[in-house]
Amino acid sequence: MRRVYLDYNATTPLDPEVWEAMRPYWMEEFGNASSIHAYGQRAKAALEVAREQVAELLRARPDEIVFTSGGTESDNAAIFGAVEAARPRTPSGAKHVITTAIEHHAVLHAVKALEARGVEVSLVPVGQTGVVDPDDVELAIRPETVLISVMHANNELGTLQPVQEVGRRARARGILFHSDAVQTAGKAPVDVEALGVDLLSLSAHKFYGPKGVGALYIRRGTRLHPLLYGGHHERDRRPGTEPVPGIVGLGKAAEIAARRLQDEAAEVERLRDRLEAGILQRVPGAAVNGDPARRLPSTSNLRFEDVDGEGLVIALDLKGVACSTGAACSSGSLEPSHVLAAIGLKRQEARSSVRFSLGRFTTAEDVDYALEVIPAAVERLRSLSPHSARSATGDRVSPLSSSGQVAASGRPPSGR
User: Fold this and answer.
1) Looking at residue 44, which CATH number applies to its domain?
2) Which of 40, 109, 235, 351 has the fewest C-beta atoms under 10 angstroms from its C-beta?
3) Cβ atoms of residues 320 and 4 within 8 Å
4) How far is CA 176 from the centre of its chain?
5) Domain that holds residue 223
């Protein structure tokens, strides 16, 4: 049976060039990068090369790059570190954080934890397309606001956020600005100066590097309390012996991404559009979630009327096609996606949605095979459903009936 991987937003396969770059650091070059002897100094030199490679990808300075264990740690280090280090902006001593209703749980759960500690939090809603309005972000700013966090692109919908405009407004008010770029770094252009961010998170395994390693961009002069305490590694930003093989892999993945970015994005988008158009043409009652234009070239989030999304993922896996219902870290949740709820989808619409994400090693043959099995899988699931109106009618899915707005109440959205 043919195997087709269409879940690149969850993780990517290791690029062979990355593996070759990492290989010596598992065995021959095993030194601790903090040791002063030759073994340690060779390891240290490898770290600094990787730091330069990541900095080049982000258009940053090498001393602004701190290595972490991945996107979740980078998000947490940025959010907790910035809020704890921030001086209160009002006599009351209160601190306030702004983020959006569609952030990854690494951000949403972090701000929820801050809220439990007395920090005030506002969640800004998004519209039906899944894009936040910079005006709404600005309206949420208070005198005591110390941090704004808006993701660069959403992991479920692929929608690109107006980070540059939010960054401009945050800087004008003297407020620190963080962006979770885990889904964009290595897949779309990321220029920290152009975006106006003070802090930016990325993860190696999202762009053909190893799992368990990431980075946090920290603009020069940004005050940040450490999340961990220990040695003086990473210029006192992140203690712990550095995983040299993984960091070398991150650096190599960044170097490859910078070299291939433009051509690769165009090819992936072409294949994504071919897959999406084929599904919409062959499957009645299918519709695109999110903004069809302002999104990552890799991502297509579709809903299938009268079909359980998780059931469809399982049915496709049995035919060799791997996809997902959303974030991998939320798999198995009984609640529908908080992202799809935030754009106004009804519960059943959210539960009937599936994410297809393509990448570097996706081929036209992969797309053609997926287009062979997806319509048949949908038709079979509908025929087995006693509640399916689709089995008796050919009507297409009705348009969204909700405004897609989520109240900026300061509470995380329901159904996460």
Assistant:
1) 3.40.640.10
2) 235
3) yes
4) 20
5) 16-257
Considering 329, 376, 389, 407, which one is annotated as catalytic? 329
Is 101 a member of any domain? yes
Residue with tokens 């690494």: 106
Of the three residues 257, 292, 311, the one that is the final residue of a domain is 257
Query: Which residue from 167, 132, 178 is spatially nearest to 339, judged by alpha carbons?
Result: 132
What mean pLDDT do residues 351-360 have?
97
Is residue 412, in this structure, part of any structural domain at all? Answer: no
pLDDT of res. 399: 31
**DSSP string for residues in 233-272:** HHHHTS-S---HHHHHHHHHHHHHHHHHHHHHHHHHHHHH
Q: Is 343 helix (H, G, I), strand (E, B) or coil?
A: coil
Q: Using pLDDT thresholds of 50, 70 and 90, give the confidence band for residue 387.
A: low
Asked whether residue 207 falls in the same domain as residue 245, the answer is yes
Question: Do the domain assignments include residue 390?
Answer: no
Instruction: Select from 201, 236, 257 the last residue of a domain.
Output: 257
As for how many domains the chain has, the answer is: 2
329 noted as active-site residue: yes
The label of the residue with tokens 């996107």 reads 71
What is the per-residue pLDDT across 27-50, written as a single tens digit (0 to 9) for each?
A: 999 999 999 999 999 999 999 999
Residue 119 three-state SS: coil
